[in-house]
């Protein structure tokens, strides 16, 4: 299975889990069938995230990554892979790809479901307003409690694509890493590890602590908490956000804006 996607596990993973993972991948390869869930997502136990990933695949969505119990995953070109270890603050999440957008669906213990997306049309990350997207009403918090929405409903919403998502009033933009010192990449790469020209740099690695701080401050400002500041890492220049005559950020073209009614 040298041509398969690499599977990375923590050093303290029990031997029986590694044996089960190897068996799942080897038996699927020999039988010519997809690897069974949750092993296909490099997870040892079923979870909301593996269930969501399975449902998205059924709806024709390309799932790029699942992070739940196993926070280790490789990224980058196949001949020059790098390792990312997800932090607990990131929560459990699924990353998926659409023709014109990249999306991350996560569950945070404090706020529940969150959906963030990146649209190449405007080169930044933005948060999907789940309240408007699901029920056409505003919610007092950025997320939706896990108990209020079943996994299947989230899968339906994501499966409908960006046209069904409503933009939050508090978009945020993580800085793009510098490519000045990056070595040229070979054009001959496995499709699973190909860095598409349309893929955001930040899709290959989660935002850092400074970026998260900036995101939180922008969201707090959007909820009416003014006068906040933080000593965060400087961000790269970004394309100006279109504004209305009142100075409020206007709707992005990558997804459906809120209905005035």
Furnish the topology, listing elements before pairings.
Layout: H1 15-31, H2 48-58, E1 62-67, E2 72-75, E3 82-85, E4 92-98, E5 101-108, E6 112-119, E7 124-127, H3 130-135, H4 151-159, H5 209-222
Antiparallel strand pairs: 1-4, 2-3, 4-5, 5-6, 6-7
Helix pairs in contact: 2-4
What does this structure look like?
The protein has helices at 15-31, 48-58, 130-135, 151-159, 209-222, and strands at residues 62-67, 72-75, 82-85, 92-98, 101-108, 112-119, 124-127. With 261 residues, it is of the alpha+beta class. It has a domain at 45-222. The strands form 2 sheets. A 5-stranded antiparallel sheet has the order 1-4-5-6-7, covered by helices on one side. It has a two-stranded antiparallel ribbon with strand order 2-3. A hairpin with a 3-residue loop joins strand 5 (101-108) and strand 6 (112-119). Helix 2 (48-58) runs parallel beside helix 4. The termini are far apart. 26% of the residues are buried. The model is unreliable at 170-199 and 226-253 (pLDDT under 50).
